[in-house]
Amino acid sequence: MLALLESSPLTFIILAGIIGLLVGSFLNVVIHRLPKMMEREWQQQCAELNGQTIEASPSYNLIVPRSACPHCNHAIGALENIPVISYLFLRGKCAGCAAPISSRYPIVEAVSGLLSAYAAWHFGFSLAGVAAIVLVWALIALTFIDFDTQLLPDSITLPLLWLGLLLNLSGAFTSLPNALIGAVVGYLILWSVYWAFKLTTGKEGMGYGDFKLLAALGAWLGWTMLPLIILLSSLVGAVVGVALIIFAKHGRNIPIPFGPYLAGGGLIALFWGPALTQGYLQLLAVP
Questions:
Q1: Regarding predicted confidence, which is higher, 51 or 156?
Q2: Is 205 helix (H, G, I), strand (E, B) or coil?
Q3: What is the CA 166 to chain-centroid distance, rounded?
Q4: What CA–CA distance (Å, rounded) separates 270 from 274?
Q5: Tens digits of per-residue pLDDT, 231-251?
Q6: 89: phi then psi, degrees, rounded to nearest 5
Q7: CA distance 173 to 269
Q8: What pLDDT sits at residue 49?
Q9: Of 7, 28, 16, nearest to 105 (Cα)?
């Protein structure tokens, strides 16, 4: 199998796309359940600190209970859980009660499949190719969780940081010194921005999860990619923020998550970072 993947790039791309679709279905579960699991854990910790006892609740994790319709509790069967295809076959409605199913589910699945296939094509069958696919999955999950809850779970960002450093022991994306400096500088940049904004305005401009996500991206791609990631994420975030205020009547005091834009900047740097940086430097060198 490994020999086939090495000798046939198309096979690797197709396989990566199919696995990406399947993982995308699981990512929908992660996006929905992980914040609820975190909330339950926080409630349990608060109760313990206050000397209270919380009654044992049914198991709730990424595996249990089985996925079901939130309206009629219809258990979702295997044939109803085929990525993208089931949504189209069911015409976006529950098979049990015909309640509408959010279009986010097939969107996450399709994005996961397409980006996984693109990463396989871009890097080929290699350590970097497989690792890039994993990074894509993690950034998709973080993006949608942050959109929903303005949380970037440590259970994703911290393993992502350590995995980036481990991968770069063998120079998968950059040298280990660059990766280590990227992790440290990535964290400290946004940490400094956070405290500068808080000391100036008395308000918190971002969360600690943003620091950890940029540190993880620095660990994967090295410190040289950090300026590009910050520039891209800031530009897109500013444009979207202004658009929301003007067109969607989004209140100025309502926070906008920054994690999705960091994730987007990280993906662009992953695929096209060196080319964009080189083009920018050549542009500056023009007399």
A1: 156
A2: coil
A3: 19
A4: 9
A5: 999 888 777 777 766 766 666
A6: -65, -40
A7: 11
A8: 85
A9: 28
Rounded to whole angstroms, how far apart are CA atoms 280 and 231?
Answer: 12
Beta strands in the chain (DSSP E): none
What element of type H or E holds 245?
helix 226-247
What secondary structure does DSSP assign to 166-193, as a single string? HHGGGTSSS-HHHHHHHHHHHHHHHHHH
Distance CA 233, CA 280 (A): 17
How many Å apart are CA 71 and CA 261, to the nearest integer?
32
Global confidence as pTM:
0.93
pLDDT score recorded for residue 184: 97
Beta strands in 15-154 (DSSP E): none
pLDDT digits (tens, 9 = 90+) for 31-78: 999 999 999 888 888 888 888 877 777 888 999 888 888 889 888 888
In angstroms, rounded to a whole number, what is the distance separating the alpha carbons of residues 37 and 84? 26
CB 17 within 8 A of CB 120: yes
- Give the single-character DSSP code of 161: H
| Integer Cα distance of 74 and 57 in angstroms | 21
How far is it, in rounded angstroms, from Cα 39 to Cα 101? Answer: 24
Mean pLDDT to the nearest integer, 168-190: 96
User: Residue range 123-149: average pLDDT?
Assistant: 96
Residue 75 is given by DSSP the state B
Give the three-class secondary structure for 253: coil
Label residues 67-87 b or e (16+ Cβ within 10 Å = b): bebeeeebebeeebeebbebb
Contact status, residue 52 vs residue 155, Cβ threshold 8 Å: no
| Residues forming beta bridges with residue 100, ordered by sequence position | 93
Contacts of 282 (CB under 8 A, 6+ apart): none
